[in-house]
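haha ok so turns out i had the wrong file open the whole time. this is the CORRECT one, sorry everyone. sequence first:
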Amino acid sequence: MSVNPKFRLLPKSDLREASGGFDWQSTGEDPAFKLKPMAYQPKGWYMLEVQVESSATRLNSKLYVDYGEGINEANAILLPLTNGKPLKRVCYFSQRPLAIRFDPSEQPCSFSVKQLKMTRLTSAYARKLMIKKLTTRHTTDSHSGLAVTELLERYNHCFSPCKATLTYPQWQQRHEPAVFDKRKITNELEQLNRKPLISIVMATYNTEPLFLKACIDSVLEQSYCHWELCIADDCSTDEQVRTLLNEYSEKDTRIKVTFRSVNGHISKASNTALELATGDYVGLLDHDDCLAEHALFYIAKTINERPQVRLLYSDEDKIDEKGVRYEPHFKTDWNRDLFYSHNYITHFSVFDATLIKEVGGFRSGLEGSQDYDLLLRCVAKIGNGQIAHIPHILYHWRAIKGSTALSSGEKNYTTEAGYKALQDFFKATYIPVEVRKGQLANTYRTIWPMPKPLPFVSLLIPTRDGYEILKQCIESIRTKTTYPNYEIVVLNNQTTCDKTLDYFERISSYNNIRVLNYDFPFNYSAINNFGVPQTKGSIIGLINNDIEVISPDWLDEMVRQVSRPDIGCVGAKLYYPDNRIQHAGVTLGIGGVAGHTHKYFSDVNPGYFSRLKLVQNFSAVTAAAMLVRKSVFEEVEGFEEKHLKVAFNDVDFCLKVRDKGYRNLWTPYACLYHHESLSRGAEDNPEKQARFQKEIEYMKQKWGDKLTTDPYYSPNLTLNHEDFSYNV
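then structure:
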């Protein structure tokens, strides 16, 4: 953390030290640092420079200046920050400050303060900088003749806060009353044709009585009454636990309790609890966690709506020792490759009882990830359509010391157990997949087999002029790429630059580079449709001319993934030149049609529940760096070149591939820079803007509701931004 040496950050409120690449975690809505100076600056003009890397993409930061009247909003300097991007602004101290406070955020998040410093300015230079800023914002207005107070007031308006996003408590207040409306649920309960018995299975061992009581009470308070609670105590030494369990079993006959005579750990204890179960479905509940009041209702409702379902899971959040809920996990629908990367399903998971019996229950030796192992073995037995995700918070995961809810590092053995479970899963499939530990605790990387002989890959690079970026792109591929079996096909779209034409001649002498001429107006879809039939490869790589290789094995990774018969398009992890994220998968509906998830996140940020570090499925990936088998390209008849000449053609293409039954995939293990739109330019004139609007309308008419119901996203998350903030 490089902070101006004149300042030292002293945590004041709602802050604690963080892990996972960040220095701090805000624990509430008012995190604050006191700035301890060697000497506060005198009155006058300053350039304030702030840079924060955060798990949130937008931060409404503030600097509060105390002139002797305490901290108040009137003396707040607004700092609307974008993750990882430095912000500079002129500020004025009317007096020598007695104290300064820095509030980095108005929301819970993790962050690191990379820069916070002030530089003294002359009044003339400060005035020049403010006029420059205002002139950029308001080109038709004159500011040079303004008095300094009015000039400063106008300048300060340039730093209005980022568009407000909801905090989790606000989201709960706004959305959960409708989801958990008791009158509506009572009516729906009466209309259920099938009311399956749901066995809640729980193992206990020396559980804190307060939390155990809250856990059991959350089952007793269920609006759906067709349940049984099957508890196996694993030889607790705390007599309070036995007493409490006996009291509850006498209180309600639906509560079944057995006491093991020998401690056998979680897998054996859970199997003992399973022996008590007589229900049609089995739900897993940890001994100190809680179910939402209507959790079992939503399980039963989904079973009625989808009778073929054999595995169900819900969204979840965490709950602290005081009962405060935080950090909700709004999950994707069934995402097979994300599940191979980590156990995103737990909690609340519910299984067809016959399915659990079929796979033999829990396995000993996998303690710590016994639920992941059980899920893997069940997933191997059922089809994708038999897995249902319920997009509501139905489970509250207790975060206390010693719990993996608080930190995955609390139980290091969980990573080892999950690693073994995933290895065993792939051994049973007879697919020679190598399992490695991922970049974060409890995450994994699957190395899929490379086909033999190596597939030939044709990398198509459309270009017009752009000598510098094209050369950078091609040379980085040639000098850094470890995969040997490829060709580069440059699609020349009416280049006139002599330097670029000379470069074409030079590279055409290489054995694996060809230049094809497409002598028509720019149409990205048509250019690639023209190029693909002339390629030699069985795999097509669509590469923008402003791409630059970072990881040498990028093509190896993408070839391994795209060679899987159930995979359609494969996308890469793309960075801006400043190492912020440019592309990490495409989510439908963001901005009206589609947007790049995690855009502008820093390279050290793990992303929303680690998703920046994990292979996973997406509805679409960008064609700036995409691989697809030629047979699949031909099966969907290539790109839509009539209605999507420039924008959204890759999204449309991926959706056509998805409709054919393939899964599109994004991998963080293929890393490249994307110097975005350097060749094509921005949508900055009326003709381009009109064309862009037509392409938007075409996508909306063609794909309709599919653009607002992305199965790999959550309806609880916003479609206004790419940062996984809550849906307003």
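The radius of gyration is 29 Å.
again sry for the mixup
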